[in-house]
Sequence to fold (563 residues):
Amino acid sequence: MIGHHLTDAFDGVSLESGAIATMRDGTRLIADIYRPTDGTGPWPVLLMRQPYGRDIASTVVYAHPTWWAREGFLVIIQDVRGRGDSEGTFYTFRNEIDDGADTVAWAAALPGSNGRVGMYGFSYQASTQLLAALARPPALKALAPHMTAFDLYSGWFYRDGILQLSTTIGWASQMLREDARRTEADSAAALDTNWLNAGRLSSAMPLTDAPPLANEDVPSYGIDWIRHPTKDAYWEEFDLLARVAELAVPMFHLSGWYDFYLRGSVDGFRKMAATHPGQVLLAGPWQHIPWGEHVGGQDLGPAAAPAIDAMMAAWFHHWLDHEVPVGAAPLPPVRYFELGSNAWKEATAWPPPASQPREWFLCSGKRANSRYGDGALSPDGPAGPEDMFTYDPEVPVVAPGGNRGGNVAFGPHDLAPQQEGNNLLVYTSSPLDTPLVIAGDPRCVLHVCSSASHTHFVVRLSRVLPTGVAQFLCLGAASVIGADTPTGKEISIQLDPIAVQMAPGETVRIDVASSAYPLLIRSPNHATDPATVKAPGDFGHALQVVYHNDAQPSRLVLPVLTD
Fold:
């Protein structure tokens, strides 16, 4: 794929373009091989298997393969089955176990290989690593699965049973347009339109039948994700959290506080660390892409600049250079970026063992609507009977960063403008007297009642600066059934992991709503699957009540680092 007239630029590297690996069923997959020319070898192998065109090689976040080759690796970038120049038909995730195992064995036997293979990559390229490891190929010695989910249902496509709408339809449009081009399908032009404006499908009804995702001339995987809203047999195939015992490989996990797949990545690290040695986690302040110090309009300082390539090179050399690794691993068990101080911290586990739960109780005089109301957070206990708001799916609270009509970009956005509406509840602490360090997984326990039998609740945590800016930190959501009773229901909403140091004078804030659109699909306020709602007129309104009294103590539980 790379012109021979450009190879002169590859100082110290030789390129074999279009190398063929034949899978067990005869399908031929195509790869580019980058070999060091300095030194005698043999070299440890770094393999990336990806669906976006092997010449791209995830260089949006990693160094070019020539850099890795100069660092002493034999580097292989392969088009997965049915993508790029590889033969076969592509269906997300489905063929990556066998194809991954066959490719690892092929790579280990290549001229110049020392027989030990590591795999690297983020997002889908991380999933190909985990799926290959399930087959336990003997030559596979280490992985670097970055920004992915071990359980695709709960960590990638759904949040507590709620479809992650914008990311799902955006990625489906991106992937299917390549399939359509490959087969010259009639849907190719429509998929290109979707890719340029993925948000147009956010309001498609019913989403389960929305063209072009549901068109018969393109693969079905995009619409299959939407048509399987519960964790049925379709998703069990891709639940690696349930199969960590089979993944006995050292892993360099990487996640971002503002990555959509943060929870899926951290959950994977925690379960792997409890089962297998050699697990490390780097948790940065980044979005899915790009990785850097500028996130959500904020400058997080020079420490937020990524140094991932150098870390990975040292880590892979440790595991791949020798049959038995020499010396200590070059990374601590957990290294994480603390917002606020904008500095890196280290810990032996996540959350840090010194992190302890601290409760902040919801209080109000029955008027917590908007940030102009009287909602408060108090460590002393709940106060006031209840608050209420009306959830109208046609007038949803938008996701952090807004982007109601398109893709949602997470980041430390200012939520204060969104907190001006009466269609959400806002609870704010008194200004802090001393620094507060949060590191772990916040949780919100709410006592709720609803006029709807089925509805959603969404909680967002923010750090309010003395200027009034409410920096978004993390969120959680719950699909709630059965709160339409006189006694209501207690629900526990798990928020995403976060680390932040709050200074004296700052305040802690949560807002409670029933939507974060278009990040999450809108509940219609009845038992109908939201993706099957046929028209806006099928939406119902819901009166949502949150209680916070001695018998129903709604509260925010923060993981606070203690000395």
Q: What stands out?
A: The domain at 155-235 is CATH 1.10.3020.10 (alpha-amino acid ester hydrolase ( Helical cap domain)). The chain has a mean pLDDT of 95.
